[in-house]
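Note to self: keep these together.
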Amino acid sequence: MPYKDREKMLEHSREYYQKHKERIREYYKKNKERLKEYWKLYYQKNKEKLLNHAREHRRVHALHTTNKIFRNINKRPYPKDGNCEICGKYQLKGLAYHHWNDNYPELGMWLCFFCHQIVEGVEKKSLKTILKLLKTYLILKRKINKSWK
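Structure:
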């Protein structure tokens, strides 16, 4: 029965399953080998499509952090143009999802590798420390350049 509304379709599927549960289970038990062969052929035929779907699902609904793996979350949509949300550069290998609160992993932004590294550094250190590190870096760089000449 075709439905335009996804919720109605899911509701119909649930009702149908509840109504015919025993018959469906019996069918799967009787045809276990045949179904196994069918799914194996289906996978071989549609391998790339299935892998792309799984990859896309992980990108949108999973988040791997240092301490934790979040599943079934709804991240902000991936930028259609594939550009970093901070610097605007296109990242060939894809963007990383940066979030700042483990209680709300849905809150985050899509960043290129470079911007993600900078933001991670900012998250872990105070602004005072970052400015001190930058100052030290510039002084050391100047000293090295002078000694090289």
